[in-house]
Write a structure and sequence with these properties.
It is a single chain. The chain is mostly beta strands. It has eight domains: 61 residues, no CATH class; 78 residues, Sandwich (Immunoglobulin-like); 80 residues, Immunoglobulin-like, CATH 2.60.40.10; 75 residues, Immunoglobulin-like (Sandwich), CATH 2.60.40.10; 80 residues, Immunoglobulin-like, CATH 2.60.40; 74 residues, Immunoglobulin-like (Sandwich); 66 residues, no CATH class; 345 residues, TolB, C-terminal domain (Neuraminidase, 6 Propeller), CATH 2.120.10. Helices cover 5% and strands 42% of the residues. The chain is built from eight helices and 96 strands. The strands form 21 sheets. Strands 21, 22, 23, 24, 25, 26, 27, 28 and 29 form a nine-stranded mixed sheet that branches. Strands 1, 2, 4, 5, 9 and 12 form a six-stranded mixed sheet that branches. The protein has a six-stranded antiparallel sheet with strand order 3-15-14-17-18-19, with no helix packed on it. A hairpin with a 2-residue loop joins strand 42 and strand 43. Helix 2 crosses helix 6. The N terminus is likely disordered. Keywords: Repeat, Signal.
Length: 1225
């Protein structure tokens, strides 16, 4: 059934005249006209527009005939088949397939329905007849008409219901009963009484209710309803004060019962009692695209209740306010206009008797999702491979839109929220629907007719045996068993197919002409001409070019080309790239015309000419004097045949002394002045040259990026008798005039960027461009990954010029291993494998630049902001010494002022344990027996802790140096005594969970005995007695016994301190040390210790049971030394898994300034500086050239390789890697 508005006509015969408003009309009694669209005053936000309301059923009329047996009602349903715009009744009429009517009253035990029950609505536009027979005669009966859907049980359509009241006729007077929303209101009040619901009729019995209905004054009731429904608007008109469907009929019926059958009265100006109006609900509906964006188009929204108008959500908005929805179960209909009806969707909602709204969707969190809509298409037919644009809305601008032609998915080439550019896919035929799917929502469809044709050939020509691919459209080449026939009648062998292509071998016997493709059972299709053997030209790029310009020619059969011409002039630099491509340079003497390519098979001619513009290409000299000879090179015309004239600035015409097909040689005439030279071919347009300078020097070119003291060659004219050459005003004392056109000059001291000037007795010439003095190079970025040592290293910076040299560390590398790609980039293609890859230096004639190969800028991470220019986090740390970074990049600091700090990876402080007073616990004075007991972070004290370590579980271990203890901080914040041992200073935990520690007795620089110790069990704590035993004075000489707790094992040292030997010591236990501090462990489990007063890093090889000198850090003190042989004092150290030892240098060879730097010792023992200039301060910047440190004592690295430094004079410093290490999850 087509969309339409619905009119129902019921014709009745009656001789009884009913009061106005009941729905009956008699002679001389004005009745109610059929209901028209109601204008409802609705407040709407700026984002929406209100449509006029129109009810689902416009009106109905009836005629009744009576007999002794009862009344007979004849009904006719008329559907006028007309609608426009977004009107609910038009959308709902799609659902109305059947009608039913019935009569009810107080004296009928059950409703009496029409014959045939559900009557199908006629679809041919004619009346649909219904009939209700033999209705017992009576008064105040209600007739109802309802629309139903086409489901098996014919569900009623909400809002598609009208009613009217009639009384049985007593004579043959004809009356017409009209059904409107107004008549429905009267009938609804009457039905409330007929139902005899105790909530309405109270304690009245059935007989009393029937009597009340029988005596009800319908004239008064209708007068009351007119006041309520129309207010001050014309009665029977189209404008309501209260839509009739919003009247609470039960409440009004109860008011009549409470008044003993008397109809309530409203005086003029009285408001309608609030409880006479149903409790209505207000809602805001949210509508979005499938990808949760707002639509760029107007969206139409309406609720299916009888009284709600339609609204528009403006483009770019996503919500609509719909007020005063009457109680019931409804649907929100959302529609977006487009081709073939656009798209729409429905969402269920309900409003209960209290006006509470329940939505299944339509909120901000769960919006109604409309499918994408297609509004327009650039073409409705075309071939596969053609691009078309779909214009619409609701497309996903980020991609993910599936466009199907029938069942075949197309390629989406360009995407936006309102348009999709798609390529018609291959393998489809006939007329197919196009639809767009976005996030599971599919659009409306538009039909597309696919043309059957051969779209293109992969080559315009070829030879027998060549492979050729034909792109086809309108059929599936992979399943249609096509036949391919070449001109000359030879059938080709098909070697492959796809849905849209056929690949064949050009057969013997093929000739030039169209190729025919015939799908099995189909019609033959013709291709463009395919040329056999002889060259064919399809394109020129560019299509215009001056002499010397390179032109690329596309086509076929170019192999073996013996020549090419431009308008008959042979080209230069002809290169056959392949059989389908060649290039050439526009030759001297060429003029505009066709391009021809010749092979031994023939000549091919372009359909498009190559345009050679007429112009002066060059002058043999930029200047000169009268009488000089000048050669002018031209293009686009032939000077030998065009009889040109040559005029110099000043108007003097030159004498032509010679010409070729592309040049003119002239003598500079007397009277010529500086300016352009004009060449005019006979009958042609005057052409202008660049400026030709008379007499005064002119500088046309020179080499730039030259250092002071190096030579520059100036090219130009009129240099003879030059008296001065200057660089931006600085005179060059040394220069040589080679000839009138060149000068060789040495760049003078003090020269800067700027123009070069040459002075002769005739004047001064100034360069048009500035000379650029070569400056020292810079390195702004290094792209290098130490984990990929064979990968190229790319340096980015400035002032990289030919002749620049490179060093890795202090060693120059082979120039054959790198290239200077540009003035801003150098690539080291083959990094050296025998050098410590810590730093790179670039040198040119003006200076050098050095950069770390590993680390970026040094950053002030956490510290006192009042002492530096800037810092990431302002948090003052007291005398930081040892530093440890755990697996989650939490950072721990051991403070010499008796504290332990924890910071997260962002630098935010997590805790500070200790109050700056040395000891074990804050409460140890009042509770001495608990001195060594487990305590909390808040209660703990420390005594000069120097280093920290962490285990895999996240527990922290503190070398509590002057307390002669290892303290354990558990993950739940408990502080425990794990061991007592001689003044621990360096601490680290191996991959197998063993804690290694260096210690001295007494601690720090006065050590007489140094130890390397280990603790295997980190979970079992010693007894209080063991812990106290360390401090027992058991000797008569007053010296402490220093009994270590039993969980400590000495693996090296323990004898009187002494110097290290040059040869390895074995076993380990025999090694002697002289004041041990830092400790680190490599990936092989080797332990490295800082043997401070021996100025050595010692390596303890646990597998081979030996101790060796790994590196010496004391060279020729106090003689001046270098960063490769420094003299430094060590504190804490760390070793990375590869065996590189990191050593912060707080102090000092003052002559060389080795202090305040960070050093690295490679696995082979090579020492290099990785950060710090040697100046004592806290400056950020490039590690090797800008950054400074105050007093670095501790260093550790995060899992990703970021280096953290404990700078005792300030706080925590950080250096990120250029290439972060991969962090294991």
């Amino acid at each position: 059934m087509k969309r339409s508005s619905l009119a129902l006509a019921l014709l009745m015969i009656s001789c009884t005249v009913l009061p106005p408003g009941t729905g009956q009309k008699g002679a001389g009694i004005p009745g109610n006209s059929p209901l028209q669209p109601a204008t409802l005053p609705v407040q709407s936000p700026a984002s929406q527009t209100v449509f006029p309301h129109q009810p689902l059923i416009d009106s109905a009329e009836a005629k009744i005939s009576g007999s002794a047996q009862g009344d007979h009602l004849s009904l006719k349903v008329i559907i006028p088949r007309a609608s426009s715009g977004m009107r609910v009744q038009a959308l709902e009429l799609d659902k109305i397939s059947h009608l039913r009517s019935w009569v009810s009253s107080n004296d009928l035990s059950a409703p009496i329905f029409n014959l045939d029950n559900y009557v199908a609505v006629r679809s041919d536009g004619q009346n649909t007849a219904l009939s209700i027979k033999t209705v017992p005669r009576g008064k105040n009966r209600v007739v109802s008409v309802q629309g139903y859907d086409n489901t098996t049980n014919h569900a009623p359509i909400e809002g598609a219901l009208l009613k009217a009241v009639y009384s049985s006729p007593e004579n043959s007077t004809e009356i017409v009963l009209t059904f409107t929303w107004r008549s429905t209101a009267t009938a609804s009040v009457l039905e409330s009484l007929i139902k005899k619901d105790p909530a309405v009729v109270g304690n009245l019995n059935a007989e009393q209710v029937n009597q009340l209905i029988e005596n009800l004054n319908m004239t008064q009731l209708n007068a009351l309803l007119d006041k309520v429904i129309y207010g001050n608007n014309p009665v029977g008109g189209t404008t309501y004060a209260l839509h009739p469907s919003r009247l609470n009929a039960d409440v009004l019926a109860k008011a009549i019962v409470d008044a003993n059958g008397t109809v309530p009265v409203l005086n003029a100006g009285d408001p309608t009692p609030a409880n006479w109006i149903k409790n209505m609900g207000d809602i805001t509906l949210v509508v979005k695209t499938p990808n949760q964006n707002n639509f760029n188009s107007q969206i139409q929204v309406q609720i299916t209740d009888p009284a709600s108008p339609a609204v528009i959500i403006s483009a770019g908005q996503n919500s609509a306010s719909l007020p005063q929805i009457i109680p019931g179960t409804w649907q929100a209909i959302v529609k977006l206009e487009g081709l073939n009806g656009g798209v729409s969707t429905r969402a269920n909602l309900s409003v209960d008797a209290n006006g509470v709204v329940q939505l299944t969707e339509g909120t901000q969190g769960n919006p109604i999702i409309l499918p994408p809509v297609i509004k327009a298409i650039t073409a409705t037919q075309g071939a596969s491979g053609t691009q078309i644009t779909l214009t619409g809305d609701g497309f996903n601008p980020a991609g993910g839109n599936t466009v199907k032609f029938g069942t075949v998915t197309a390629t989406v080439d360009v995407t936006s929220a309102t348009s999709l550019v798609v390529t018609v896919p291959p393998g489809i035929s006939g007329t197919v629907p196009i639809q767009v799917t976005n996030n599971g929502k599919t659009s409306n469809q538009v039909n597309f007719n696919v043309e059957s044709k051969i779209v293109s050939l992969s080559k315009p020509g070829g030879k027998a045996g060549d492979t050729l691919t034909l792109q086809v459209s309108g059929f599936d080449a992979s399943s249609s068993n096509p036949t391919v026939t070449f001109a000359g009648g030879a059938n080709a062998t098909v070697t492959g197919t796809t849905a849209g292509s056929i690949t064949v071998t050009v057969p013997a016997g093929a000739t030039t002409g169209a190729i025919s493709v015939t799908p099995q059972g189909g019609t033959a299709l013709q291709s463009p001409t395919y040329t056999l053997n002889t060259p064919v030209i399809t394109s020129l790029n560019p299509e215009s070019g001056s002499v010397g310009a390179t032109v690329t020619v596309k086509g076929a059969n170019f192999t073996g080309a013996t020549g090419a011409t431009v308008n008959g002039q042979a080209v230069t630099d002809l290169t056959v790239v392949d059989d389908n491509t060649l290039t050439f340079k526009v030759p001297v003497g060429a003029t505009s015309g066709a391009v021809q390519v010749t092979t031994n098979q023939g000549t091919g001619t372009s359909q498009t000419p190559l345009t050679v513009p007429q112009q002066i290409v060059a002058l043999s000299s930029p200047g000169g004097k009268a009488g000089d000879s000048v050669t002018i090179t031209v293009s686009g015309f032939n000077p030998q045949t065009s009889n040109p004239t040559v005029t110099f600035a000043g108007g003097a015409t030159a004498t032509i002394t010679g010409s070729t097909n592309s040049t003119l040689t002239v003598t500079v005439p007397a009277g010529a002045t500086t300016g352009a030279i004009t060449v005019t071919p006979q009958g042609g347009t005057a052409l202008q040259s660049s400026t030709y300078t008379l007499n005064t020097p002119v500088i046309s070119s020179f080499n730039s990026n030259v250092a002071i003291g190096q030579q520059v060659v100036l090219s130009g004219a009129n240099f003879t008798n030059a008296t001065q050459v200057t660089f931006n005003g600085v005179a060059a004392p040394t220069y040589t005039v080679n000839n009138d056109g060149t000068i060789t000059v040495t760049v003078p001291p003090g020269a800067t960027d700027g123009p070069i000037r040459v002075t002769t007795p005739s004047g001064t010439g100034t360069s048009a461009t500035n000379f650029v003095l070569l400056k020292p190079p810079t390195i702004t970025h290094v792209n290098y990954n130490p984990l990929q040592p064979l990968a190229p290293i790319v340096l980015t910076g400035t002032n990289y010029v030919p002749g620049s040299t490179l060093m890795i560390g202090t060693t120059s590398i082979n120039p054959n291993t790198y290239t200077i790609d540009s003035t801003t980039q150098i690539t080291i293609h083959t990094p050296p494998q025998n050098l410590a890859m810590d730093s790179v230096t670039v040198l040119n004639a003006s200076g050098s630049a050095v950069s770390s190969l590993i680390y970026k800028d040094v950053i002030n991470f956490v510290g006192d902001a009042t002492k530096v220019v800037r810092t990431d986090v302002n948090f003052a740390i007291d005398s930081p010494h040892g530093i440890n970074v755990d697996h989650d990049t939490n950072i721990y600091i051991a403070s010499l002022l008796h504290k332990v700090y924890k910071f997260n990876s962002a630098g935010q402080n997590q805790y500070v344990s200790g109050d700056g007073i040395s000891g074990w616990r804050k409460d140890e004075v009042t509770n001495p027996t608990a001195k060594f007991f487990e305590t909390t972070l808040a209660n703990a004290r420390f005594n000069g802790p120097e280093d920290l370590a962490n285990d895999a579980a996240g527990n922290i271990y503190v070398a509590d140096t002057t307390n002669h203890a290892i303290r354990k901080i558990t993950t739940d914040g408990k502080v425990q005594v794990l061991a007592r041992l001689p003044g621990p200073e360096g601490i680290e935990i191996s991959s197998n969970g063993i804690l290694y520690v260096t210690g001295n007795d007494p601690p720090n620089g006065n050590a007489t005995t140094s130890y390397v110790m280990k603790i295997t069990d980190l979970n079992t704590l010693p007894s209080d007695a063991q812990i106290r035993a360390y401090d027992a004075d058991a000797n008569s000489d007053g010296k402490a016994d220093h009994t270590m707790t039993t969980n400590v094992t000495v693996i090296a040292g323990g004898a009187t301190s002494g110097p290290a030997t040059a040869t390895p010591v074995s076993p380990i236990s025999a090694a002697r040390f002289l004041h041990l501090e830092g400790l680190g462990i490599d990936g092989q489990g080797n332990v490295f210790v800082a043997d401070v007063d021996n100025f050595q890093i010692r390596k303890i090889d646990l597998q081979n049971n030996s101790v060796s000198v790994f590196a010496t850090l004391s060279w020729s003190y106090p003689v001046l030394n270098s960063d490769t042989k420094p003299y430094i004092e060590m504190h804490e150290i760390r070793v990375d898994p590869q065996g590189n030892v990191f050593v912060p240098a707080a102090c000092c060879n003052w002559l060389f300034n080795n202090a305040a730097k960070i050093y690295k010792i490679s696995p082979t023992g090579q020492i290099s500086k990785i950060a710090g200039t040697g100046t004592f301060s806290v400056l950020e910047g490039k590690p090797l050239t800008e950054a400074t440190f105050s007093s670095p004592r501790g260093v550790d690295f995060a899992p990703n390789g970021t280096l953290y430094i404990s700078d005792t004079g300030w706080g925590i410093r950080r250096i990120d890697r250029f290439q972060p290490l991969a962090v294991n999850p």
